[in-house]
Amino acid sequence: MLRPTGDSRSTSKFNPSPSRLFQQSLTKEREPTPSSTLARSQEIAPRLGPEHRDILWRAERVSGKRVRILPYSSLEAWGTIRIARNREKYHILRYNPRYERHLDYLVIHECGHLLRIWCVPPEERQVPLVTRKERTTAYRLLLKELPGPLRALPERALANLLRMWHDGIVRQVTSFPTDMRIERWMFEECPGMRGAQVTALAEQLRENEMVLHPKVQALTARTVYQANVAINCAFAQFLALLLSARTRSQVQKA
User: Fold this and answer.
1) For residues 63 and 114, is the Cβ–Cβ distance under 8 A?
2) Which residues are paired to 85 by β-bridges?
3) Domain span at residue 57?
4) pLDDT above 70: residue 106
5) pLDDT band at residue 247 using 50, 70 and 90 as cut-offs
6) Angle at Cα 185 formed by Cα 75 and Cα 53, nearest 5°?
7) Both 254 and 135 in a single domain?
8) Tens digits of per-residue pLDDT, 26-44?
9) Disulfide check for 24: which of 45, 141, 149, 159 has CB 3.0–4.6 Å away?
10) Residues 167 and 236 reside in one and the same domain
């Protein structure tokens, strides 16, 4: 769980309730349902190349359920996959339309998550869970580090900011180790995807570099900022080791 590193203190006038902020942060845009977006997902699959369709087929075969590929404009990440529950027919692979140019890469990467989960015994298939108590505790700690300019935010905006900080770091901590393994698997097992993979990773590195701007640091809780930079640095170092000298130069030029 997030742990404070500074001595910032709230003033007597700034004392929002972490529990109330937690309740407000639960208000999010409804996710699309498989039935309402089935037509869109059927349009996407034929555009995928043979290598992508093969990975998609393997993921569906080992899991016993179909994968639906859906655009979701409010997605904060490039893409995610929601594993189908027992009575659900489909896994839902969502992607941010801003990154549709990387859809081939995203499909293989997210299907990699499916393959990793279904290649282990059922008792070992686990996903991270954050309880209400843990989230409220994190909000309380982050409020102590809230930069001065952000203390004038309306309560709903503040709740959304805390949710974004908290969920972003939890997502990085829980997904980056798996993401690194999937990137290595893609690089070794999908040689036809290396060009698209390198292009997508180069863009991810450019986005990660934006967090180093002084204004971003000044408007981010210290714990969140330090954790984010450390994780991004570890990911960049991993990519430097993964890629060959030729592909590494392509990333640097991009």
Assistant:
1) yes
2) none
3) 31-127
4) yes
5) low
6) 65
7) yes
8) 555 444 444 444 444 444 5
9) 159
10) yes
pTM of the model: 0.76
Same domain? For 104 and 149 the reply is no
Q: Identify whether 25 is part of a domain.
A: no
Angle in degrees, CA 102, 99, 190, rounded to 5 = 20
CB neighbour list of residue 168: distance below 8 Å, 6 or more residues apart: 76, 224, 228
161 and 184 within one domain? yes
Pick from 101, 127, 153: which residue ends a domain? 127
Q: Count the Cβ atoms, other than its own, within 10 Å of residue 249.
A: 11
Residues 143 and 245 in one domain: yes
* Both tokens assigned to 173: 């901590």
Residue 3 domain flag? no
- Amino acid present at 198: V
**Beta-carbon contacts of residue 210 (< 8 Å; ≥ 6 apart):** 216
Structural domains of the chain, count: 2
pLDDT tens figures, 45-96: 546 677 778 888 999 999 999 999 999 988 888 999 998 888 899 999 999 9
Q: What is the pLDDT of residues 213-222, one digit of tens each?
A: 999 999 999 9
Closest listed residue to residue 4, CA positions, set 139, 158, 161: 139
| 8 Å CB contact between 91 and 82 | yes
Considering the domain architecture, whether residues 240 and 147 belong to the same structural domain is answered as: yes
E strand or H helix at 116? helix 103-118
Residues 228 and 202 reside in one and the same domain:
yes
Q: What share of the chain is helix, strand, coil (3-state, %, to 5)?
A: 65, 5, 30
Q: For residue 67, which phi and psi values (nearest 5 degrees)?
A: -115, 125
Q: Do 137 and 119 have their domain in common?
A: no
Report the C-alpha gap between 186 and 117 in whole angstroms. 16
Task: Give the end of a domain, one of 62, 94, 127.
Answer: 127
User: CB of 205 within 8 A of CB of 239?
Assistant: yes
